[in-house]
Amino acid sequence: MSTAPSHDETTPVLIVGGSLIGLSTSLLLSQHGIRSLMVEHHPGTAIHPRLASLTARSIEIFRLVGAEAGIRQVEPPFPRISNIPMVESLVGEVVDTLMGSDDFQAYFTDASPVEGSGIAQDVLEPVLRARAEQMGGDLRYGTELIGFEQDEQGVTATIRERKSSNTRTVRAQFLVAADGANSMVRRQLGIGQHGAGSIGHFLSIIFESDLDLIEEFHKRQATMCFLANDTVSGTLVAYPGSSARPDLFRLDISFDVEEEKIADYPEERCLPLIRAAIGIPEYPVRFKTVLTYELAQLVADRFQEGRIILVGDAARRQTPAGALGGNTGIAEAHNLAWKLAAVLRGEAHQRLLATYDAERRPLADYTSEQAALLSEQRETEGSAGITVDTFIINLGYRYSAGAIVPEAGDDQLPLAQNPHQWSGQPGTRAPHVVLGRQGQSLSTLDLFGAHFVLLAGPNGQAWLGAGRRAAEALHVSVDCSQVGGAATDLSDAGSAFCRAYGISTDGAVLVRPDGFIGWRSVSNRPDAAHAVTQALSMLLCL
Fold first, then answer.
1. Contact status, residue 295 vs residue 368, Cβ threshold 8 Å
2. Per-residue confidence at 3, pLDDT binned at 50, 70, 90?
3. Is the N or C terminus of the chain more exposed, i.e. has fewer CB atoms within 10 Å?
4. Helix (H) or strand (E) holding 463
5. What distance in Å separates the CA atoms of residue 393 and residue 533, rounded to the nearest whole number?
6. In CATH terms, are 9-78+112-194+297-393 and 196-295 the same topology?
7. Across residues 361-386, what is the average pLDDT?
8. Cβ neighbours of residue 58 closer than 8 Å, sequence gap 6 or more
9. First to last CA, the chain
């Protein structure tokens, strides 16, 4: 009887789809020391801009994996004073301001130690790819998934190199489907979707300019604009250039898929539409290409099927309003990566993976609904009728169930609110507080990412030993630190830590590797070691 393996190679995690979310998943798994294989059917990173900005929260996540410096090197200027106007044309009359400088808190806020970025996806992905490869990620472009089967122990997948047509069989313990809105993995699993469905179809006209068209956006202090005149209506978006490419621009207009084809929009038809959107006849522009896309609000009925897990557009589709799609996908990958790592290292029960669905799917419903509402309010009500706050959506949500230890009264808390209104409740993002260490400033967020972190107040030194004993008992890494007090290396000159985390000076909090609070004790307890051990066991689903 042959004992030869029935596969060509093995990997702990197979990532299907190598765009923004697949690359993010690879990076975050590598940060936790987990090998992965990523396959992407396109020959390289994105060639179209698509996502136009990263929120402060997304930059926080990329900072953890050492990608922020690369982003800052190639990002365009992203001024704090920005707006999104409704105009007759780019140089024409301003009808309304749909998003003013006060609405950019998701990018510029004292709730975060970092600022957001105006980087576009085609500039961002090469940065992430280089960092992922540097961290040991196995990234295979021009390679597609052609089939898979799963059993109780893992997933067997067949992949094909498109250029050579060579196929290989890969055995993985888990498969992460980041293969987009039309996910083959989701469809093959038979996972349905719910939501409002299709909202409309649009045509994107991509072009360059021989003149400094970006300066016309700067005059408006605009990142994009909504426009309507007798010739064209839609949105005009600027993607400032970098060392990798010149400035690009995108005009989006509605597209009737029943009556029109993409071939109906050759260059000679598109150029007058572009010039009408700019508002200057005969303005020199260079037509690049046209693309079509569908706006939809759809969320997968479940994000996990056995050892296969959906992230990004494979898990939920939403309108691009507020740049919520890509930024939400990055947060999903961040939530999932530490859980996969804990299970693969044997620190957590496999039940921990079910908390990804429990935590992220309600937020997918909420975020997709808010994005659709924002699109509707912009179109029908103007600035006076906009109630959607992207600052809250990006930084102010909480997990109401999952890998958390709830407190009494949590069921009365909202799903999301201004992040400044939270004070350390389990399930919320750990607040940013400026601390000192050896004469240097750092954020509390700089303490999170690799392991669980137990932070005690200035009189909570008893918690440090309790945390270490819990870590030893459960064979898991826990970084234990005391904030403030004479015997600690973390100073808190403004005494802000305890207020921000909702504990007394002898209390403690346990923060998950993704920077969300898992448990806290407002004050000291005589059974501190037992309390931390029990909390950690619950967070790991042991």
1. no
2. very low
3. N
4. helix 462-474
5. 32
6. no
7. 91
8. 116, 326, 327, 330, 331
9. 39
* CB-CB neighbours of 534 under 10 Å: 15
> Are 125 and 19 in contact, with CB atoms under 8 Å apart?
yes
CATH T-level fold of 9-78+112-194+297-393: FAD/NAD(P)-binding domain (3.50.50)
Amino acid at 9: E
What pLDDT does residue 487 have?
66
Please count the CA atoms within 13 angstroms of the CA of 114 that sit on its side-chain side: 22
pLDDT above 90 covers what percent of the chain? 83
Q: Are strands 84-87 and 224-228 parallel, antiparallel or unpaired?
A: parallel
Q: What is the pLDDT of residues 476-507, one digit of tens each?
A: 999 999 999 776 789 998 889 999 999 999 99
**Quick check: 139 and 18 in contact, CB under 8 A?**
yes
The domain ranges of the chain are 9-78+112-194+297-393, 196-295, 402-539
The β-bridge relationship of strands 167-177 and 155-161 is: antiparallel
Cβ atoms within 10 Å of 439's Cβ, excluding its own = 6
Question: Which residues sit opposite 225 in a β-bridge?
Answer: 236
| Cα atoms in the 13 Å half-sphere on the side-chain side of 58 | 30
pLDDT level of residue 7 (50, 70, 90 thresholds)? confident
Centre a 10 Å sphere on the Cβ of residue 87 and count the other Cβ atoms it contains.
Answer: 23
Place of tokens 């100073």: 491
pLDDT of residue 171: 98
Pick from 352, 350, 347: nearest CA to 470: 347
Amino acid at 505: T
Cβ 122 vs Cβ 45: under 8 Å: yes
Predicted confidence (pLDDT) at residue 452 exceeds the cutoff of 70 = yes
Please state which of the ranges 44-58, 147-161, 468-482 shows the lowest mean pLDDT: 44-58
Question: CB–CB of 276/232 below 8 Å?
Answer: yes
pLDDT in tens, 143-181: 999 999 999 999 999 999 999 999 999 999 999 999 999
Task: Reply yes or no on whether the pLDDT at 128 is more than 50.
Answer: yes
Q: Which fold has domain 196-295?
A: D-Amino Acid Oxidase; Chain A, domain 2 (3.30.9)
CATH dotted code for 402-539: 3.40.30.120
